[in-house]
Every structure is written in C-alpha cells, then in structure tokens.
C-alpha cells in the first residue's frame, strides 16, 4: 500500500501558480496548479541553471523558468525543445480537494541534487 503525505488544499495553490513544499533533506518540491485544476509536482530546480521553477509562469501543462524562460513540461519534468534537460517529477494526487505527495518520494527522491551557487569568480594569484 502506498503512503501519501497531505500537503494542502487545492485552493491553497494559486491557479497558474505554485506552492513550495520544504523537505528536511534536499531542495524544496514545487506543486503547480494549472487553469484546468490539474496539479503537478517537480523539484523546485530548473535543469538549466537551477532557477526556482516555483517562481515561474504556468501555462497549460508547462512552466516557464523565471531565469532564462526554459519551458519545462509539468507532466514529466522534461525541458521542451530546443532545450534539453530534465528535473525530477514527484507523484501527486488530489482527493476530495486535498493535495498529497507520495511519502517515500518526498523523503528520499532527488535529495542529492543542489542548486548552483552564483557569485564572483575566485582567481588564483601567482607569487612573484
């Protein structure tokens, strides 16, 4: 039997928007809702440069990354051509207006992935 973790009410996710779910280990999970009230869940990390997908614009069954406008398919996490890459997907279900994530995935799926760290480049100096 599959165990599920209740996340929120479907109304807690804005239409054409998302809600982030924090985890004890690993990056957050972004739970999306489109205008047909379909709900999807992906790791909150674009496969391109690690942008927060939860801050992107939802349209149809895709989300546009807020950093470089990559379109990520919400059904499978695949970047849409001509871009190439994938972000991990999480199984989600809606029952009686409540949104659930699969418990074992929430705890252990894609916990080894990190977000790239931006910052100044450190250059080696040579002694004279």
Concise structural overview:
The chain is mainly β and 128 residues long. It contains one helix and ten strands, in the order E-E-E-E-E-E-E-E-E-E-H.
Protein described:
A hairpin with a 6-residue loop joins strand 6 (62-64) and strand 7 (71-73). The protein is mainly β and 128 residues long. The protein has one domain (4-108): Rieske [2Fe-2S] iron-sulphur domain (Rieske Iron-sulfur Protein). It is globular, with a radius of gyration of 17 Å. Helix content is 5%, strand content 32%. It contains 1 helix and 10 strands. The strands form 3 sheets. Strands 2-3-4-8 form a 4-stranded antiparallel β-sheet, with no helix packed on it.
SSE order and pairing:
Elements: E1 4-9, E2 17-21, E3 29-33, E4 39-43, E5 57-59, E6 62-64, E7 71-73, E8 89-90, E9 92-95, E10 98-102, H1 103-108
Antiparallel strand pairs: 1-10, 2-3, 3-4, 4-8, 5-6, 6-7, 9-10
Molecular shape: globular
CATH fourth-tier homologous superfamily: Rieske [2Fe-2S] iron-sulphur domain
What strand line-up does the widest sheet have?
2-3-4-8
Count of separate structural domains: 1
pLDDT < 50 runs, ≥5 residues: none
How many alpha or pi helices?
1
Rg of Cα set? 17 Å
End-to-end span in angstroms? Answer: 68 Å
Specify the CATH architecture: 3-layer Sandwich
Q: Give the CATH level 1 class.
A: Mainly Beta
Would you report the number of β strands?
Answer: 10
Which fold name fills CATH's third level, the topology? Rieske Iron-sulfur Protein
Helix content: under 10%
User: Which sheet architecture does the biggest sheet show?
Assistant: 4 strands, antiparallel
